[in-house]
Amino acid sequence: MEQAITTASLDEATQIIKDAEQNIRDNWVLMAETLIEIRDNELWKDNKHSGFDAYIKTELGYGRQWVYKLMKTPQVAAVIPVTNPTVASELVALPEEQWEDAWQAAKQIAQTNEPSSRHVRRAVKAIRRGTPIEEEVSRLTRQPDLAPEPETGDLDEEQVLKEAQAEFETVATMMRQLYGAIEEVSLEKSGVWIDMNAVKTDFRNLNSIIKFSKPHKTCHLCDGKGCDKCLNSGLLCQERFNAYSEGGSQ
User: Fold this and answer.
1) pTM summary value
2) Whole-angstrom Cα distance, residue 84 to residue 68?
3) What residue segments make up the domains of the chain, in order of their start?
4) Contact, 79 vs 96, CB < 8 A?
5) φ/ψ (deg, to 5) at 215
6) Which residues sit opposite 217 in a β-bridge?
7) Residue 225 and residue 235: Cα distance in Å, rounded?
8) How many Cβ atoms sit within 10 Å of the Cβ of residue 133?
9) Averaged pLDDT in 10-residue chunks for the chain of 250 residues
10) Which residues have C-beta within 8 Å of that of residue 14, sequence separation ≥ 6?
11) What is the pLDDT of residues 58-77, one digit of tens each?
12) What is the DSSP string of 136-166?
């Protein structure tokens, strides 16, 4: 039965919303802390599960990747006012002293005070690369597929794949630009000792690594949730996808 909400004023209604939001935050932090306790104290042995991963799959039905991300989020929630565990999990890729910078950068990228996990991920990657946030915002604006957009929930499998592929395209572009810069320097007097044959060989190898590592499809063995076959990424490169697909060429 639905509970009727009666409020005497806008302020009271607003407070109800804020309290509910805090409850959401408290609940996922409690879930994360309890999962950590089950793992660290090996409570999963009580029902004779073969391991923690088997417990979360059998008893809870959660994906391994999601659970392990969730368990990293309590420390973030204590510092940053996030209400979404997926958003919080993106910040743990950085040292704690950079969480606030990444959070503020994500809000700038999203152009809202409630950035999505997608925007936070972009901010984190920009900080790790040393890219100025203003430059990142400008770059996303020039690429409609990656432009800031309102939060509508977690990314679906197609969006995750598309964004991962875009990241590889960005890396490939940066490599081409770097190669061009090295080639230009090699033509100057100061670059006389640059062996462009060696540079070409190294870049050819790097290009091959990027090309064959680029995500091709969502992992059909775990539906993108993360498994041993996709190294818990939820994605497969073309070679792995073909190897794991029935008939080897799908």
Assistant:
1) 0.48
2) 15
3) 9-71, 86-148, 158-213, 215-250
4) yes
5) -55, 130
6) 236
7) 9
8) 18
9) 57 69 73 88 86 86 78 85 81 86 87 83 83 73 48 57 82 86 90 91 89 89 77 84 67
10) none
11) 888 877 777 887 888 888 88
12) HHHHHHH-GGGS-----SS--HHHHHHHHHH
The pLDDT, as a whole number, for residue 84 is 80
Residues contacting residue 10 through CB under 8 Å, at least 6 positions apart: none
Measured CA to CA, the distance from residue 236 to residue 218 in angstroms comes to: 6
Q: What angle do CA 175, 181, 184 make, to 5 degrees?
A: 140
User: Interhelix angle for 117-129 vs 157-186, to 10°?
Assistant: 20
Structural contact between residues 218 and 63, judged by C-beta atoms closer than 8 angstroms: no
- The answer to whether residues 145 and 162 touch, using CB atoms and an 8 Å cutoff, is yes
Residue entry with tokens 């770059």: 139
- What are the contacts of 148-155 at 24+ separation with CB within 8 A? 148/109, 148/110, 148/111, 148/119, 150/112, 151/110, 151/112, 151/114, 151/115, 151/116, 152/116, 154/86, 154/117, 155/117, 155/118
In tens, the pLDDT along 130-167 reads 877 777 777 665 554 444 444 444 445 677 788 788 88
> Two tokens at 190?
């100061």
What does the alpha-carbon distance between residue 68 and residue 87 come to, in Å, rounded to a whole number? 14
DSSP 3-state percent helix, strand, coil across the chain (nearest 5): 65, 5, 30
